[in-house]
């Protein structure tokens, strides 16, 4: 079983492809973009894997179209609500595709691979980047979305420390895939732990 993260997929959003994030998206049109994301997802995620979506899944107002997309996504899905998830908030049918729908999450994950003998890692999940988060000064990770940024592998200049944009547009090489727990861990474990209420605040 593996764990994956993503955010701000924006299925059905034509302008995310053509206007707002053309440098990080693939596809000749929005339907092609949707198809590529689903194809990549199916290649990456197995039915027993956990996927945390940190908000803003759809830019679609049709419940049936949303449901048809969700049916195609393997994995055990968890949703942290974003600002564009009104259609899910207002529809129990769509909520039932997820094991949980929450405003934020505090999870513990076993470190991957060569780090597996170390203690479990706390990860704070929220749609919005947060300047300080629970146990930040103890090494907790913070994953966020919302800003469609380059600050995945690259550290954000203001939300520093062990935090990263886990959105689809923060992926390297415009690959429109999900962040694996191994990628997240290897990226953040090497970052400096930022102290509580540091002087720059």
What's the gist of this structure?
With 201 residues, this protein is α/β, with parallel strands linked by helices.
Comma- or semicolon-separated keywords:
single chain, 201 residues, alpha/beta, Purple Acid Phosphatase, chain A, domain 2, five-stranded mixed β-sheet, four-stranded mixed β-sheet, 23% helix, 18% strand, globular
Task: Give a verbal description of the structure.
The structure is a single chain. The chain is globular, with a radius of gyration of 16 Å. It has helices at 14-20, 30-44, 63-71, 86-89, 92-95, 181-188; strands spanning 3-6, 50-53, 76-80, 100-102, 104-109, 121-126, 141-144, 163-165, 179-180. The chain has a single domain (3-188), classed as Purple Acid Phosphatase, chain A, domain 2 (4-Layer Sandwich). Strand 2, helix 3 and strand 3 form a beta-alpha-beta unit. The protein contains six helices and nine strands; from the N terminus they run βααβαβααββββββα. Helices cover 23% and strands 18% of the residues. The model has no long low-confidence stretch (mean pLDDT 94). A five-stranded mixed sheet has the order 4-3-2-1-9. A four-stranded mixed sheet has the order 5-6-7-8, with no helix packed on it. It is of the alpha/beta class and 201 residues long.
């Amino acid at each position: 079983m593996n764990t994956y993260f993503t955010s701000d997929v924006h299925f059905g959003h034509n302008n995310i492809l053509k206007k707002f994030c053309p440098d990080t998206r693939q596809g000749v049109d929005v339907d092609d973009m949707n198809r590529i994301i689903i194809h990549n997802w199916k290649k990456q995620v197995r039915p027993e894997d956990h996927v945390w979506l940190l908000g803003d899944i759809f830019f679609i107002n049709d419940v049936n179209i949303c449901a048809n997309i969700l049916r195609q996504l393997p994995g055990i899905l968890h949703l942290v609500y974003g600002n564009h998830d009104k259609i899910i908030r207002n529809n129990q049918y769509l909520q039932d595709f997820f094991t949980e729908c929450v405003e934020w999450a505090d999870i513990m994950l076993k470190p991957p691979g060569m780090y597996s003998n170390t203690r479990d890692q706390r990860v704070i999940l929220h749609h919005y980047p947060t300047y300080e988060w629970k146990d930040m000064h103890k090494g907790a990770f913070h994953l966020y979305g919302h800003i469609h940024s380059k600050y995945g592998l690259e550290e954000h200049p203001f939300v520093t420390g062990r935090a990263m944009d886990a959105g689809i547009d923060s992926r390297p090489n415009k690959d429109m895939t999900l962040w694996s727990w191994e990628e997240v861990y290897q990226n953040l474990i090497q970052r400096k732990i930022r102290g509580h209420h540091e002087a720059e605040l």
